[in-house]
Amino acid sequence: MGEEMIKTTCLRCLAGCGMYVRLSDGVPVSVEGDPDSVTGQGILCIRGKATLEYVYNENRLRVPLIREGERGSGRWREATWGEALDLIASTFTQLRDDHGAESVAFIEGGSKGYLDAWLSRFSNKFGSPNVTKAAQHCFLPTFFGSKFTYGALTRPDFEHPPECLVVWGANKHETALPEGKRKDMALENGKTLIVIDPAPTALARKATEWVCLRPGSDLALALAFINVIIREGLYDSGFVDAWCEGFDELTEHVAACTAEWAETKTGVPAEQITRIARTYATTKPAAICSGNGLEHYPTNLQMGRALAILRSITGNLGIHGGDIFWARPPLRHNGDPDLVAHDELPGDVMSVN
User: Fold this and answer.
1) CATH superfamily of the 154-325 domain
2) Nearest of 237, 193, 232, 235 to residue 211 by alpha carbon
3) Element (H or E) spanning 324, and its range?
4) Which of 126, 213, 321, 334 sits 20 to 30 Å CA-CA off 220?
């Protein structure tokens, strides 16, 4: 068979970087980044480079195992797929017959691709609306904060580089290397970089200004930014008048959230809070790149909304070099009602997944 290259996508995280897999006589022997990939741009992070270590790891399960003995005994035996699937199906059926479908809850980790949809489809067809995951601490707070505020998720426009980039709770150089590299390219030629993070990350050490705040106090800082921008008249009045609703109520809501108030919550000096707010509001275009660090606290949804409000009132929404809406490719997405089979839940069961 000789050697050949297979074009594929890395699924070690949700970035979906392009990857080439080199085969020798049909066997994967190495991986490398795809230079034509929009997301990866030929770069693979350490997880992507370790793809074949997952495949060939000696501890990887290659056949189903069925427990023998009591839980915790560590006694397992190999089984065929047919035996394993029959056991799973019979157990699910017995639970539904004995206790009802809603007695079963489904939980998953950080899924990739269509796994979300398939698990929801399975649970709905089974008759249970009980599906959960770790997404309340990863992605969904930011997603819903954006969606509740202006309808969809936004991303920084690195292709038309921002004059000011705020990186908030995101360590992309360590966790999403291709995006970190895009930041580097966007920040060439003296662009303003503001890093808001309790940790002195590599990016923080290169920042124009590093804001070292108390962990978990991000929402107080964001509200103070909004306060300064509105109180000093630094908001984009044209954008606000044309596109924003509830601006007067917002003004009243943040009236007490002064920089001095936020200093007591965040540990960040009021002078620095005011300076950062002014810089972000007056440097156009500006973008905010946030990360999972903001989503690990009870305020995560409101933090997502506060970021969306900052983008909106400064007029940095939907402009080149700001935060832009991205077009969904013409594929079925995870929330497609037909794909997840919401309509197949019993009529008396509320669909909450």
Assistant:
1) Dimethylsulfoxide Reductase, domain 2 (3.40.228.10)
2) 193
3) strand 323-325
4) 321
Question: Which residues lie below 8 Å from residue 311, measured CB to CB, with a gap of 6+?
Answer: 154, 288, 317, 322, 323
For residues 278 and 234, the answer to whether their CB atoms sit within 8 Å is yes
Which residue's entry shows tokens 């297979």? 6
Q: How far apart, in whole angstroms, are the C-alpha atoms of residue 270 and residue 103?
A: 52
Prediction pTM value: 0.85
- The tens place of each residue's pLDDT in the chain, 353 residues long, gives 689 999 999 988 777 889 999 999 999 999 999 999 887 888 888 889 999 999 999 999 999 999 998 999 999 999 999 999 999 999 999 999 999 999 999 988 766 667 778 888 999 999 998 988 877 788 889 999 999 999 999 989 988 889 999 999 988 777 666 666 666 666 676 689 999 999 998 889 889 999 999 999 999 999 999 999 999 999 999 999 999 999 999 999 999 999 999 999 999 999 999 999 999 999 999 999 998 889 999 999 999 999 999 999 999 999 999 999 977 677 777 677 788 888 888 777 754 44
Question: Two tokens at 219?
Answer: 């929402």
Rounded Cα distance, 1 and 132, in Å = 45
Question: Cβ(204)–Cβ(210) under 8 Å?
Answer: yes
Distances (CA, A) of 312 to 91, 92, 146, 247, 319: 51, 48, 10, 11, 11
